[in-house]
Design a protein that fits this description.
Blueprint lengths: L4 H7 L8 H11 L3 H23 L2 H18 L10 H19 L23 H7 L4 H19 L3 H12 L4 H8 L3 H21 L14
Helix pairs in contact: 1-2, 2-3, 3-4, 3-5, 3-8, 4-5, 5-9, 6-7, 7-10, 8-10, 9-10
Length: 223
Amino acid sequence: MDEPMSARVARATTEGETDPATLELMRAVASQDRNAFKILYERYAPRLGSYLLKLLKRPELVDEAVNDVMLAVWQNADRFDPAQGRLLTWLFGIAHHKGLKALRRAGRSRSEVSFNALSPPGNDLEEPKEALLAVEPHHPECTVMGWELGRALAWALDRLSPEHRAVIELTFGEERSYLEIAGIMGCPVNTVKTRMFHARKKLAHLLAQCGHGEFVVAPESLP
């Protein structure tokens, strides 16, 4: 007996992006199958939302941006071509451009803070020291250092332009290749490399202000 369509579509949620079940899922969405779209939404919306939050730095904009992305997917699912790349890369491309559009609407596209106006986070810990030490009682100094580095990195990333935050997040957070990022951002690969160079340079400057310059990613570790 043939497997029901709904079962095959649901099975796509646990299989790879390029397998036949995933392609069938996209064909079902393209034919306006609402159940298939629900599966697609549940599978990818949280990950796209996480990326958009890092890009936008405005939590109040994320839900609307995710809805814009998924509406575009619903309306244009038939345009997905597996020969041109992976499904997730295609989805990230839509999310990236919808995110930048949201920033433009909010009047913050390409916004950056001048280095001269920056105030690095203070060394005073917002969490009680006892709580930090309880996380790793055998190496408390490493725990505190890691927490401070994480806060400094978040502060520094918040002060990059959206394009520079995007290349950092797509490279290290989403593990996309430069070629994939070029497709997502709609620019040449060399532009991605240039943005990464400048993003790293700015992160080095910002983290150095917080005493963490030695943690900046070395060029040889980049894709």
